Amino acid sequence: MIPNAKRDLGNILLLLFLYLLQGIPLGLMAAVPMILQNRHVSYTEQAKFSFSIWPFSLKLLWAPIVDAVYSVKMGRRKTWLIPMQYLIGIFTLFLSSHVDTMLESASITLLTVVFFLLNFLAATQDIAVDGWALTMLRRENVGYASTCNSVGQTAGFFLGYVVFLALESPDFCNQYLRFEPVEVGLVTLPGFLYFWGWVFMITTTCVWFMKTELPEKDTNKESIISSYKGLWKILKLPNIQTAIIFLLTAKIGFAADSATGLKLLEAGVPKDKLALLAIPMTPLQIILPFLISKYTAGPNPMSVYIKAMPIRLLFGFVFAGLVWITPSFKEPDGSFPYVYYCGILLIYAIQQITLYSMFVAVMAFFAKISDPIIGGTYMTLLNTVTNLGGTWPATFALWLLDPLTSKSCSAGLTNDCSTQALEDACKLENGECITLVDGYYVETFACIIIGFVWMIWGKPTILRLQAAPLSEWKIIHRNRRKEKN
Fold first, then answer.
1. Cα separations (Å) of 467 from 62, 73, 365?
2. DSSP string of 29-40?
3. Is pLDDT of 424 > 70?
4. Which of 4, 120, 240, 452 has a CA-to-CA distance to 272 between 20 and 30 Å?
């Protein structure tokens, strides 16, 4: 059947909006670390807050429950969508009146718990919307679901990250949006949260009463048990066990990259300028998968992965060099020249080519090996492990930065400037905290070495997994072979 978007225009617009709402918390997750960095929060505390992004990497654990437990009267997807979005609205409204207190008192643990719960709700909403998209759209238009996901979530992330940081910045607002300078931006974090809290509450009410969910046919109440059994069967496949080890460890070599943006902020680069660099990068991120896919469409997609990985590893040195030279570009008034930002764009653009080469290659590999009988569960498992393989090294890398860093106060040998209080004490003594060893450079060098050492095992392992017969990735094939034995 030929797709006809006009027949589903209302549903497509609704899906776009639901995915946009989902992207708002994700954007805030990226913006808050920059706010914390400007408040001189330690990297150990940054690592603690990074746990708030983990729910999207773990949602496979409760996805079968969301899919199986529901109220027939309310609707299979609305049973979860409506409560989750109401709770997101309540959480953001709660945060709007408490987030400044949390930031001022450096209550990072409480902030992490609240944002973790917020992200958990957003991840659960994502599961519900993904499922609803398959039945909300007509059969010939189901292909638009992934487009709605990508476009809507990107738009929400853009609003929660780029737009928020730009409008929150006094410098940006005074330079581009005001005639008279003011010491504050056009929006504040509490105000932004308050606005979107009510957006969630009002729009969720509209969806609840104005959008009817059609009942699904052939739903199986036992699917929750069968889903977990299916997961267990997949996990018992030897190739999957090897693939999981590979996916959980492949990104250790890039772990230090997660701290690069925070180190640029530490060097004085304004957070709104860094956020605005995401604008020209967005078209590139949309185009790259299409350009790379023609090289990964064949029988050996992971060959592209193997070629791109060492280049991406070497970009660790490029990022370290960028952080090293950043202070030399700083003008007396604290600004940076346009040539500096053009340099950042060029570096990140080239790095994105290697990143997306690996991403598209591994996605093509997943599509190749997934058992079509339980393809959804298979792909979700592999994607979840891939996401987790990126989140845990980044969190661990942030946690290690402070222990690996050595400082000394020029006014007293007993002060190692290891905390903000000690740095303030150093300043009171008319001293200056001097960095003797920057943990970022130590970590970058170590990660690159680990990455290349990993490739000694990883490259032949990837080639072996790629060359394995498709029958070895299928559950039924292995079960039959066991029965014969």
1. 33, 49, 11
2. HHHHHHHHHHTT
3. yes
4. 120
Query: Max CA-CA distance within the chain?
Result: 82
| Cα 284 off chain centre by | 18
Task: List the alpha helices (DSSP H) in 105-188.
Answer: 108-136, 144-158, 164-168, 170-176
291 alpha-carbon distance from chain centroid: 23
Q: Which two tokens stand for residue 50?
A: 């990074």
Q: What's the CA gap between 307 and 305, in Å, rounded?
A: 6
Whats the size of the chain, residue-wise? 485
Query: Which CA distances in Å does 253 have to 256, 303, 389, 397, 438?
Result: 8, 19, 11, 10, 18
| Per-residue confidence (pLDDT) for residue 355, from 0 to 100 | 92
How far is 292 from 294, CA to CA, in rounded Å?
6
Q: What are 396-421's pLDDT values in tens digits? A: 999 999 999 988 888 766 778 877 77
Angle at 97 between CA 92 and CA 101, to 5 degrees: 115
Structure tokens at 114: 């609240």
Pair of tokens at residue 86: 């109401």
